Amino acid sequence: MHNQSCKTMEPPSLHLLSCCKTRRGILACLLTLLLTLFGGCFVLLREDGTAMKYVMKPPEEPRDALKLSISTENITDTDGSNGVTGYNTTDAGIDTGPSLSSTASLHVDYDRYGDQFEYFPPRGRVRRKKKRKHTHHSPTLVDHPWTSPKNDNISMYAHRFPHYFIIGFAKTGTKALYELLKMHPQLDGPRREMRYFSSGQIQNLTSYLSRFPPPPAQGYTIEKSPDYILSPLPAVRLKKAAIESGVETSSLKFIVMFRNPVVRSVSDYLEMVSWSYMNRKPALPPFDMMVLSPDSRVDDSLNIINSSCYSYHLKQWFNIFGKDQFCFVNGDQFITDPYTEAKALEECLHLNSFFTKKNFVFNKKRKFYCFKTSNAPMCMSGAKGRKHPFVSEEVVTTLKDYFRAYNEELYSLISRSFDWESSMKS
Ligand SMILES: Nc1ncnc2c1ncn2[C@@H]1O[C@H](COP(=O)(O)OS(=O)(=O)O)[C@@H](OP(=O)(O)O)[C@H]1O
Fold this sequence. Notes:
Blueprint: E1 6-8, H1 13-19, H2 23-39, E2 41-45, E3 51-55, H3 155-158, E4 164-168, H4 174-181, E5 187-188, H5 196-199, H6 205-210, E6 220-224, H7 232-244, E7 253-258, H8 261-278, H9 287-291, H10 303-306, H11 310-318, E8 326-330, H12 331-336, H13 338-348, E9 360-363, E10 368-371, H14 393-414
Parallel strand pairs: 1-3, 4-6, 4-7, 5-6, 7-8
Antiparallel strand pairs: 2-3, 9-10
The structure holds 3'-phosphate-adenosine-5'-phosphate sulfate.
């Protein structure tokens, strides 16, 4: 056997193809095939007869750092610096933290879906994705600076820093609310969810800000990333970024939208079903089977469950920003009477009074309101308002019991209550 040296590098596929033309090449190809199948290696035979073995890179360890835990008393950001008074930082983890009952503990399983910090699968029309040949590795969260490079002219974009953020909760109507708010003459924002403070996909602060339109005259920019609320880390990073952009952090406002937690979990489940289908993953079990373990306990390790424990997540943000910086929207009511919620929000955000009933047009076919200014009414895509599956009485009751303590804590946190105990529209 020839001298072999093991190198960790990408396999040079072009060399491989060209060497398959010769007799020696064919031998090398066979050897390559065997080693690829059983040994995770490529072997290439060189012109001079020596062999070269390329070891295929093992997949990168998934964000070990994110598995650790933080308590809100001890939050350290990736660079170890501290942008928030009273908090030390480490991007080393997420608080799987205290739960309301001693038995139930929240576990946010960040490795469950998608890349990096993506808690939820991508949304959109149900169109199956082709299998990707090459996987792209975006920079890991641990390496992410969350600031701008020293020599970057951040002041060019600093005025675009959003003053309003829709931070959660996913599947409560955040997209419809965002599109509606962007119709207000004092507001404008990017078309897509940024997730800058949660996903680490955008390179740096300057790049993030450059994706915003300039704010309207006497107005502000707004962004919606409904996964921000699920961890205190985006709050810490956001605060640091605001300071770096020269923005008064107390002037920022955060919009949090709620919906019956059981219904929200079902809606989130449907998002997962759609994601699994689009990404050619195995089909998911029915909702009832998924959320309850065989001994009929709620599986609180599921994202679709713990994302409905609103008070738990909100409290973490309350530790970082003042309570008066939050505005709340009742997502159930936003479906049936968006006008009332929009007017209340206008007031909370200190915006000029703009929305009138004429801006809301009920679409009988879609069974949702569409929003209208001067143009044709704008309706949400078919990915919103999916038909919910049947959920058994037993599961509904168990979930309601599970969420009760969180709901009650939420009502006292925000001094407002919702009719979730008696209602269950799924
Ligand atoms: N006007 C209007 N049009 C369409 N859909 C509306 C509207 N208002 C609220 N909703 C509800 O929004 C739910 C989706 O929530 P999100 O937009 O927050 O989802 S996402 O997190 O951005 O994926 C979606 O949930 P599902 O019904 O479970 O699909 C809708 O019920």
